[in-house]
Amino acid sequence: MPKYLFTGSYTAEGARGVLAEGGSGRRAATERLVESLGGTVEAYYFAFGSDDFFLIADLPGNAAAAAGALTAAASGAIRTRTILLLTPEDIDAATKLSPNYRPPGG
Description:
Layout: E1 3-10, H1 12-36, E2 40-46, E3 53-58, H2 62-74, E4 78-85, H3 88-95
Antiparallel strand pairs: 1-3, 1-4, 2-3
């Protein structure tokens, strides 16, 4: 199952929600979202800086990842970014491919 890293920041509305329900409440709500898409949460962390949270989740595919990210962003409470994570074995498989590429001006 593909693994995704979601990073994001809370809007003022979202920050008020975290203050009201706490970090564990936010993690539980996120776990319910991911599980409703057929996935599981591997890790959920809060952070300082430009990103307020980091979520690593296993999801059935890109459509499920997009559905979760769109649903959360549509709430207006967060701004999020989605990153597909690759294993070392995925990179091994990529190095065995022979893409045909011509650089610009080449």
